Amino acid sequence: MAINRGFLFGDGIFETMVLKNQKIRFSDFHKSRVEEGCCVLGLESSTLSTLEEIEEAVLKMASCNQPLRIRWNVFRAGLGKYTPETDRIGENLLIQSFHPAVSIKQHAYVSKAYFVPQTPWSHFKTLNALPYVLANRQRKQLGKDEVILLNSDGYISEAGAANIFWEKTGRFYTPSLECSCIAGVGRNAILNHFQKNSIPLAEGKFKPEELMNADRVFVSNVTGISYIQEIDGNRFDISRIDQLDQLFH
């Protein structure tokens, strides 16, 4: 891979996408988020590839009928030092086999070592992902299946690579974007489903104690939904919610 500002400074954003049946799943959500991310970082998005162009390029490079995982990196062009030489963009793609989210994650914990900071770009997947890298490194060392991250104010933010939801007596909850979480594509699909079907949902600021009192907990990203069996000794219902699972098929 050529040296670029994404590699040198984390100066850019990325999208993780699923190509299935020759189409990118949730393409409208990806398009909206990457364009908004470019705006926040001051990147000129006028030459940004379209999702249709990416689909065409991937199908030329990978003649495969199986679903694929695509990482679309968008970074500031040029080199320079901290001060950019330009706001034009560069792009590249990483194509991998797709693996859906595991159905159940047995053991999770709330990290007391790593937190998600609040920044103007908190909602986007930036090329500087150190909080997630270090949190998941610790999770692996501890032999856990999932890590729950708080923001710097101690409110629940998200999981190690996914957004988090929970259910209590028929009502669903998820952290608001004010809690530094990624504006996940899977999260948007679930929120739209709740709104269209008048399913009660509260977005807000929640302390870990509220999560521990839930009936059911699940995490989601573009690969699907995983249900959490236990967090720090608290056990939850792991029966699946078919209507939500179908959003990712």
Automatic annotation (TrEMBL):
Instruction: Give the Gene3D superfamilies listed for this entry.
Output: 3.30.470.10, D-amino Acid Aminotransferase, subunit A, domain 2
BP-aspect Gene Ontology terms: carboxylic acid biosynthetic process
Which branch of life, at top level? Bacteria
Catalytic reactions of this protein: L-leucine + 2-oxoglutarate = 4-methyl-2-oxopentanoate + L-glutamate; L-valine + 2-oxoglutarate = 3-methyl-2-oxobutanoate + L-glutamate; L-isoleucine + 2-oxoglutarate = (S)-3-methyl-2-oxopentanoate + L-glutamate
Pathway membership of this protein?
Answer: Amino-acid biosynthesis; L-isoleucine biosynthesis; L-isoleucine from 2-oxobutanoate: step 4/4; Amino-acid biosynthesis; L-valine biosynthesis; L-valine from pyruvate: step 4/4; Amino-acid biosynthesis; L-leucine biosynthesis; L-leucine from 3-methyl-2-oxobutanoate: step 4/4
Q: Which InterPro entries match?
A: Aminotrans_IV, Aminotrans_IV_CS, Aminotransferase-like, BCAT-like_C, BCAT-like_N, Class-IV_PLP-Dep_Aminotrnsfr
| Keyword Lyase attached | yes
Cite the entry's keywords alphabetically.
Answer: Lyase, Pyridoxal phosphate
Instruction: Tell me the GO molecular function terms.
Output: branched-chain-amino-acid transaminase activity; lyase activity
Q: Which cofactor does it need?
A: pyridoxal 5'-phosphate
E.C. no: 2.6.1.42
Q: Which family is it part of?
A: Belongs to the class-IV pyridoxal-phosphate-dependent aminotransferase family.
Name the UniProt record assigns to this protein: branched-chain-amino-acid transaminase
Species: Mariniradius saccharolyticus AK6
